[in-house]
Amino acid sequence: MKNNLSGVGTALITPFKSDFSLDESAFRKLVKRQIQNEVNYLVPLGTTGETPCLEKSEKEKILEITLEESSGKVPVIAGVGSNNTMQVIENIKVFEKYKLSGYLVVTPYYNKPTQDGLYQHYKIISENTDKQIILYNVPSRTSINMTAETTLRLSEIKSITAIKEASSDLSQISQIIKYAPKNFSVISGNDDETLSICTLGGIGVISVASNIAPKEMSVFYKMIISDIVEAKKLHHKLSGLFKNCFIESNPIPVKAALNYLKHIENVLRLPLTASKDITLEVMKKTLNELNINY
Question: Which partner for 45 in 79, 94, 148, 267 could form a disulfide, CB atoms 3.0-4.6 Å apart?
Fold first, then answer.
């Protein structure tokens, strides 16, 4: 099985109304905005989507809307991660009825499994779907790093086609890229590392910033593969946006920015709270400097 997820994938936010209910209308518009600005694929139900705070019915509604609005124009990868292996499998069973291109599966958080535990976790998950699986290594959120050795071991499993790498360990990432089989790819999990990882041989980014700036991120990736000099310039231009998307816990700053752009209400579900005033001001300034007003 070959990975088909090069370019920019957007880790979609989940908009809520002031009463904390799912804002379906706003979500539809956000998906359309992504497609119109030429992102390469969509990733609902990840960390950026506040997925731990969503009900089962809401998750299915989000998938339905994403698939309806994307209309087969781009792949859709659903987040299904959990620190309970059997729960991941159950999530996949629920989602198998949808025309998804695959699943994003984060390393189990809180449990702190061994490297062999990580291998066994993903191995049994891969045996429960015919769709491609993208590993997701993000030690800053999970407290566990999946080593290059474990990733390379998993890369031999046919349905495991890629890893979203957010360890920020370029030596580890380089080792994976160097030794992985041809049908296995590395995707940047951090916007500010996209240029570096793609230069090493990665194939794009699953982006938080593209919620705000899908057009700019699409252009950025196209430059990386066609004009590295201009890509470096755009990287530096966008670096403030990359940094400021994380001045509070993701997706707090992103929602502040999208609220300023009048796409959503600035509402998150507890335990996350809406942005501080200073965060909103920082995001306003960032958008104005980049002339992002669409």
Answer: 79
